[in-house]
Amino acid sequence: MSIDLSFFNNIDAAMEEEAARKEEILRLVRDFDKTCRTITAILNRAHSAQAEEVPTIGSLAMDRFGEVKQHMTNLAQLVPHQQYYRYNELWSRTVQNSVFLAAFAIYLQSEKLITANELESLLGAKINLNNDLQDFHISLEEFLHSFITLTNELSRLAINSVTVGDYNRPIRISIFVQQLYTGFQLLNLKNDALRRRFDGIKYNIKKIEEVVYDISLRKLSDDTEMK
């Protein structure tokens, strides 16, 4: 009795195709990471900028999101229909980082929280708010993780703003982060990683409050800002 070896040849071909697809995804992710590093470098200027320069830095970063959108499009085209969850771990960290960078750029521009519509427009991918998308998308976890990372970055900005003599910004940051924390408190977080990182927002709030307290004690801010 002979064995039909074509069965194994088909398996081998499928494995080769899978390996090639993963390698191509990883290549695209490396290019995506490079763009994210460029945007990060632009946004980092905010930590040593004068108050009036900060919104411009946000705008300069926003100008690079056409590249981010193209990276997202390239990834989406490579992932087979309804196989998002088979490959998403290959790009999840990079997508999460890009969402954070978008949120930070929007904050520097307008001191507002990025909306779901703004993010979808910037990145060219839907947010899976109802957990019903099987094709390429931004997961709800990636969206929320980026907001937590934003509080980390804003606590750093609050400290560095004082260094350059921008004493009003930490007070506005404090109000913003408190409101964001309140929003998170409304969520019943099931994801363990999200829940652990959510607890870290409290420490960021504490660091920002210490900066604000010192500013208040030294009477460095405008009265209108303190109110």
Automatic annotation (TrEMBL):
Alphabetical keyword list: Cytoplasm, DNA-binding, Endonuclease, Hydrolase, Nuclease, Nucleus, RNA-binding
GO biological process terms held by the UniProt record: RNA metabolic process
One GO MF term: endonuclease activity
Keyword Nucleus (UniProt): yes
Record has Amino-acid biosynthesis as a keyword: no
Main location: cytoplasm
Source domain of life: Eukaryota
Gene Ontology CC, one term: cytoplasm
Compartments, record wording: Cytoplasm; Nucleus
InterPro entries noted in UniProt: Translin, Translin_C, Translin_fam, Translin_N, Translin_sf
Role of this protein: DNA-binding protein that specifically recognizes consensus sequences at the breakpoint junctions in chromosomal translocations, mostly involving immunoglobulin (Ig)/T-cell receptor gene segments. Seems to recognize single-stranded DNA ends generated by staggered breaks occurring at recombination hot spots.
Similarity comment: Belongs to the translin family.
Known partners and oligomeric status: Ring-shaped heterooctamer of six TSN and two TSNAX subunits, DNA/RNA binding occurs inside the ring.
Protein name as catalogued: Translin
Organism, as annotated: Gigaspora rosea
